[in-house]
Amino acid sequence: MPNEPSVKTLVSEKLMSFLRFSHPLVVQYTAAISQNANSPEEIVDKLLEYGVDGGDDIRSLAADLFLSVSRSDKAAAKGSNSRRHEEKSLADLARKQRQYRLIVAESDGDDDDDHDSGAGGASSSKSASGVVGGEDDKKKRKATDDREVIRALRKKSRQEYLKKREKEKLQQLDDWIAEEKVLLEGLELSEVERLEYKHNKEILEATNKFSESVAGSDGGEYRFPEAYDGDGLIDQRRRFGAASKRDTGGFEKLESWEDHQLQKATVKFGSKNRKREADDYQLLFDDSLYKLEGQLLPGKSLDEEITQKLDYVSKKHIGDGRKCLPIYQFKDKLLQMIRDNQVLVIVGETGSGKTTQLPQYLHEAGYTKQGKIICTQPRRVAAMSVAARVAVEMGVKLGHEVGFKIRFEDCTSEKTVVEYMTDGMLLREFSSQPDLKNCSVIMVDEAHERTVSTDIIFSLVKDLARQRSDLKLLISSATLDAEKFSDYFDCAPILEIPGRQYPVDILYKQPVDEILEEAVAATLHIHVTQQPGDILVFLTGQEDIETVEEMLREKVKHYGSKMGELIIHPLFANLPTELQARIFDPIPEKARKVILATNIAETSLTIEGIRYVIDSGLCKLSSYSPRTDMGSLQVTDISKASAMQRAGRAGRTGPGKCIRLYAPDHFQNQMEDNCVPEIQRSDIVSVVLTLKALGINDFKNFDFMDPPSDESMIKALELLYALGALNSKGDLTRIGKLMAEFPLDPKLSRMLIAAEKYGCAEEVMTIAAMLSVDNAIFYSPKNLQAMAENAKKRFEDGDVGDHIALLRVYNSWKETDFSSGWCRENFIQARSMKRARDVRDQLMNLMEKAGIELNSNPNDLDAIKKAIMSGFFPHIGILQGSGSYRILKGLQNVQIHPKSGMARVQPNPRWVVFHELVLTRKEYMRHVSEVKPKWLLEIAPHYYERKELEKFFPRQL
DNA sequence: GAGCACTGC
Q1: Residue A450 CB closer than 7 angstroms to strand B?
Q2: Over the stretch A377-426, which tens digit does the pLDDT of each residue have?
Q3: How many Å apart are A72 CA and B2 C1'?
Q4: A606 CA, B8 C1': separation in Å?
Q5: 20 to 30 A from A187, CA-CA: which of A67, A236, A347, A716?
Q6: Helicase ATP-binding domain spans which residues (predicted)?
Q7: Which pTM was predicted?
Q8: What domains appear along chain A, each with residue ranges and CATH number?
């Protein structure tokens, strides 16, 4: 358990050196001490001891505080919910401090301290807390004395204040140089002036810099660095290490571009209304800290109630090798339990060593004599790095006894007995070898993440275990839902392994302002008041991250050297790898790192040295509606499990703190225990096809842990039937079997298979690859949007539609021999392009295997579109009078996405095929091409009737 | 004229 924080630890020395007692920060921490003080003198002594010297002010405020706190004790004792009361009284106290300062500032002495009327209250509060009566009277007398003292002190400080004020006014009339003097004095009210002085200077500097940079600009400041994380790299560090080495030149250039942007922003901000902004700034900073602290006070009872104690293993064990991992103590027990049970649920927090050690124990115990040990991971990088680590620990070469298998990369051999793979990969293995007879143990790691693949693996493996009594199953999960796994696997025993986790204090802050402003305030609060340690802030997405980054940079500029240096790093998946790598950069001593991250930091990336976490309580979550066939991405509350995971990130290297920007009540009552599993929020057509290919027909009784809705199931079956993958009996057809071979959405597979018939398999294969790498092909930086748009337009020339445009992008890239430079010039993401190339290569192999001829006819665009329609005939939009489109066989009205090249084609195309529907601000079709309605009758006569189509445009048929 | 959390085969 952490000790009660001393004032010294709370108020950094730096802060002490320039802040006077009246600063709200010091006021708040004084309030904290006064919680446990027996007299105003004790408070004063303690403060002096720590170097806070506020002169007479200190005494008067200490007395004031003491009385207020005593009174709040009383209130707390009365109330049924003591914590609530304590919070309330602290808020009152905070308000009072503010009043007090105002009173002093306005030199209005006749304001009577209504709160002081609680002198009698102080006595009852003390008896409530068990102090004997004699002392009680003493307190009472003291309180009355204190009241007199306060009056006297206030009068004195008023006079002093007026004196200072006069002086300041004079100084204000002086030149800026005179301000230096004020700076030295470090008085509270001169703070504004000091900042303004600093600010003015900054503006001057920034303006100069700006004109310089404009004069020296070569116009070519933009550069988009190469971003694809090559698959050959083993772990994160190596991955990033290589990434930053790879393209240093571009990186520096990008940096200077950023600086340049930053300067521009500053100039704009400063020259417009700097005076007002500076004032606001001062207020905002004080005020937000104020509110934050109102509930953040480290009072003891508050701590006990809301502090989550996470398991703790002494630090001295770290780094002592395998035997010092927490799991080691459980080795024998584990092996015993595995011997006795077929299925075992293992709960182990991060750092327990389960992923690396368990397979090794099993190997040592001889399980590999009967067959391989397979361990699944939800992520590629994890599978690779864990395998590499285990290979080192076992002293073998990676790919020999220990290997990994992920898409595009198989690093295993005949010898391999311990195999790490992604969960999707295991699913593929199932289709070629449904009984997995060469394997003796299957370990499903990170099961709590509940990816679609792990969910399916659960059912398959559960079934398999019944058939094969020699097969052992290990399901490893995080704490919260272990019982659910156990129940699912017929009450399998649960073994808990402690993690290597330090305690994390969890503090709540009910947001008052916008959540982003709260995040900024909380960050600064930690930075100014807390001991060293990096901060991790969880936000929803790129946009929020960039906003917060900008806000923080502005604030830091203003506080300058007063505050320790704050190094800010954004972190999200779409960020170029070079910039992601910066989170690992060493920082100067005394500086503090702030990482503004999305969910990527919750699971995928572990960052050392984080001691503070700020949790917005939000994330973006994708969802899919089978009824409208529409996907969307929405900001949602995270689950309790996620909240715990996020908090846990603060306790990896030492005891930490987590500030949650939501109320405890919200956590308790609003948040779900676990996030809705992915399988219930996504389109499951490919899941259904995969299962069909595995010979599973009875979906009604298929043992899903959480079954997808009937609606989405029916929708999926209907679509597969329409695509010709299933016959009228619901059995897989020849085409269906072929479709299941491709790692693509079934509509894309269908289109690919049809392409041979239209003589354009090469082209359609490229389009399929491009479409399967999301929407991350084109890149449009904010400041160069027009240029990016123009670059994109070149591929859309002739209004050929988005599909053909993608084909042209790929082919142009291929002509430049896959050049990254070309990507930069054309505002295209090299990372996505390389991924598309990998996908394309894989498709090509599969096509060859399937005996599909790779014919090519790049000039027959109609043929290409017909092939596309062979897979996407259910995705047809018809122009309505209003300019919106209606989905054939659907009811929604949608529009062409403004980013589509077809959006600006006039007149609007009447019939279009689209890749997908998305709900953002409106309902949009993404990736659109014009088609002819008569093709529909040619391609999908089983799906559309002539009559049906004639209703819309009779003449076109 | 809008905006893409994160994975995976």
Answers
A1: no
A2: 998 888 988 898 899 899 999 999 999 999 988 999 998 999 999 999 99
A3: 53
A4: 20
A5: A67
A6: 335-498
A7: 0.68
A8: 4-103+149-203 (no CATH), 325-497 (3.40.50.300), 515-680 (3.40.50.300), 873-957 (no CATH)
